[in-house]
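Sample entry (741 residues):
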Amino acid sequence: MPACKRVHPFINLSTLIALVLLQGCGEAPESALADKPTKVSQQQSLIKDGKFAEARDNIQQLLDSKKLSAKQRQGLEFERERMVRIEQDFSADLADVRAYIEKHIGKVSEQELAKWQSDGLLEHRVIDGKTKYFRSAGYNLFQLDEQALKRRKGYQPFTERAPLYALNQHHKDIVDQVDPDNSQAEKKRFKIRYNLKVNANVVPDGELLKAWIPYPREILGRQENIRYIDSSPKVHQIAGEDKLQRTIYFETPAIANQPTEFWVEYEYDTYAMSVAIQADKITTVMPDDVLKQYLEQRPPHVVFTPELQALSKRIVGDETNPYKIAQKLFAYVDNIPWATAIEYSTIPNISEYAMTAGHADCGQQTLLLITLLRYNGIPARWQSGWEFSPKEFDTMHDWGMVYFAPYGWVPMDVTHGVLDSDEDALKWFYLSGIDSYRLIFNDDYSQDFEPTKQHFRSETVDSQRGEVEWQGGNLYFNQWRYEMQWQDISDELISEQAVLSTLAEPDFSLPELNGDQVVMVITDDENAIQGKLFSFEKQIETQNNSSIWKSANIETDIVVGKTGIAWGKGLHPEQVGQQKREGDGKAPAGIFRLGTAFGYLPDLPTGLNYEPMTASHYCMDVGGSPLYNQIADTKIVGEQALAGNSEPMRRDIHKNDQVYKKGIFVHHNPGNIAGSGSCIFIHLWRSDSSPTLGCTAMEETAMDKLLAWLDKDKNPLMVTLTKAQYQSLKRDWRLPEIPAN
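Predicted structure, serialized as tokens:
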């Protein structure tokens, strides 16, 4: 970035307060007003004041009490964790910082150190009476101070090493290629290998490590044709395309004295974009239900504080055109000097930090710009991932999207900022465009992962490095390391058709199973006890002789296991995540064949084979028995062979209920592996709020329709998934399209 951006004077908090007073004493928005102190906020105040020991004592006393809500307990536990993270960031003494500086520019005086500190160039904070410095304070001095930089011979600040942070031929090529009808240009294809290695012995031998590695989102016109190539472990779960912070998930046990490695390889297409905005054509946004959320405050990082309102007034002045307002805000935030950042999880309000710290990194700048744009009625949102360049430069990076009516959403990258050109299309390129060298993982910040992470994330805002945990807690950044390798393969002879062909032929899919009928059971999540059942039948289209799934018009509410669902053993490939076990109260997720119908009556109207149950029929649920997961008749095998069994098939006789009056055997755990779950059926429910011990149940009228429709000659299948699993797998497994909602 140009030198002027490093020496831009920042606005400190006292200046902002003065601006508020000059603006007047208008009431702040309700969400910006101070709340009544809470158990958590009281400790946050102590942490802000550097009173860590006092905060720790208070938190421990509160956690030892029995009067906390789950939310309060979680909040206090995170504040305790946040102090640890702050101490890791601010681990340097002045002597450490001085040694780093003097290593590169020679002896420095006490007066120079004092001035750099008073100017805010050596980031520090007082913790329990001791002044501690940001571990990268010395490094940041050479990003922020022109005079110090001149003394460091042959050194280039970080952003000046990046070819695309200044006007480049790539920008000109993009602008030359686009037109009003086509904003895409400069298509590239990249190959990525992302590696995450957990240090040896950070968890006990044999403990299960869980890892989430960022994975690209499919975004029409920006990032397409994503092709998974390989990974270790082989078994993985790619989050659904609807996840705004997308990941690929792995599990593997730790081995004593050895690091644990996770990696993934994939390819994808990316497009540059440039939209020629004409200010006189811009109209005021009329927010609909979708746009409204991108105009709202979102505490803690997007808040219209009095200080921010005052700053906005100072920058915008009397301007009313949304695009010209955006230009003013963009130029202001661009002028904040770049510096490497303290961890986002330690910052109470990132946009406020960017406004007052005197420097900011890409994500901090982006959140400040988003907040200012929203305050001025301009929809804005987050986007992030990685950036490359035509040369060797690469880094994780954050940028955003801004909405201008009538143009719609366009990219913005305030860290690349205003380019040095007299031509507006180039000067303001990054206010309505983006280069080709991007990898997009995230279309929002602080979003849930799939599967959900159980412990605090290391990075609570962004998702670019990865996350790791085990049953004992989160593994922080100092317990593992990551590496991202990229290769531009745009010139290799890989046709788009070949890519699409690969995408269309996954290793496993539903049509391979030769079932012409499918029952789909979908629940909200792994813990939900209720869900929906849908029915589909395969039909052949005569025009091209291809098969499609058509609804069979049987749709009903169902209940599943009392603790939800977990991956079972069936026809599907092994999946990562919780696996079904005997007695866990979970219905099996996956794909299974449907077998014989059963019931209390001598016969039922169904296209399945039917077996009437008697008082001597049982399903064996005792592990280790040779009859495990099988129906047996005590009159044939003897009562001793079924000793310990708890699953009579005539529950009306033995248990005085009607749930097995009508049912269907589900071929779960066909290998009858002990402990993997047994005796799984579709049967009648007691009510829509009464879950099962691991089966799927419904009301009797729906069961009658299902039995009448199912036909053994059509090899019926059952698919049970959560909504997230369905979204993640529907393309690769070629599942039927279920109705929205």
